[in-house]
Predict the structure of O-antigen biosynthesis protein WlbH.
Amino acid sequence: MAGAHSVHTVRWANGLASDGHEVHLISAHRLTGALDGGVAFHSLPIGAPWGYLAAAGSLRNLLRCIQPDILNAHYATGYGLLARLSRFQPLLLSMWGSDVYDFPEKSTFHRRLLASNLRQASALGSTSRCMARRAAETWPHPHIFVTPFGVDERVFLPSSRSAESGCLVIGTVKALKHKYGIDTLIEAFALALQQLKPRALRLEIAGSGPEEKSLKALAVRLGVAEMVLFHGPVEHERVPALLDRLNIFVALSRLDSESFGVAILEASAAGKAVVVSDADGPAEVTLNGSTGYVVPRNDPVAAADAIVRLARSPDLRERMGAADRQHVLTHYTWSRSLALMCEAYRETIRIHRRATATGESA
């Protein structure tokens, strides 16, 4: 049960179906992606956000018809609340980021609501170790599984691209929101350009969002607008081709609620050296000094220094890029993520059965 408008939801559902499991996707959001034939889609009669409360009865009826072995609710607040109201067990509650980092900071009520959702679950799923630790600050659940959102290493592949006519391409693929530090990236790019002259440098930014106008104005104010290309919104299918244009990938998120680094891992699988901030998720998926550089958030000077270091050394970029891909192949492939999620399902079912047999709460 998750937001059907998310590409991540569709990937989980399709991936599990391709592994031979019977998958039902239940959502209070409109489906926007393409589901495999092995996935049955069920749209709740009341959409989000009101559906998180009002659709509980409909969900209970639906679950009685489906009779699933397990319910996996994605996002610990909205869908976590709906799952709790359904009273279905066994329940694996998968946390995504802002639901654990930002939501409980709004008020005591929000923290208590999240704690109730976490406590009701048979087990928790977290895409990262750092988010698992943060969740424990709200409710120290005894059963939590790390289920990273891996990337398809067969789609994100290294290329033999070198700098075109001495032009190095720095880039990122992120929503143009304050959270993701695109302004810091533009400032770092301007600083790096000063150090690397007369070496040509270009910045490419893929994504859309509310800060697009102000970010373009910032590029003008810093005198780098002619060297910055805004691609606008991009479908996920186009991301491999965009990464192929880059020499260095940069992600300077400023909030810890960026609790996992999918875009970073996609660049890593494509063999790109990366520069990331020390926000929780980016720092966890990057080995500082080996697969890339981890720099302090909101620090364009440190980011520029890392970019310059990589720009001046093709050997360093190649070495880090190779280490980056190997890191993904070892820890973050899509097949490994599916295996970890399925193991979390099996363990959650066992936890529920043990709790039922002993008369304990799940």
Summary: Residues 334-358 form the longest helix (25 residues).
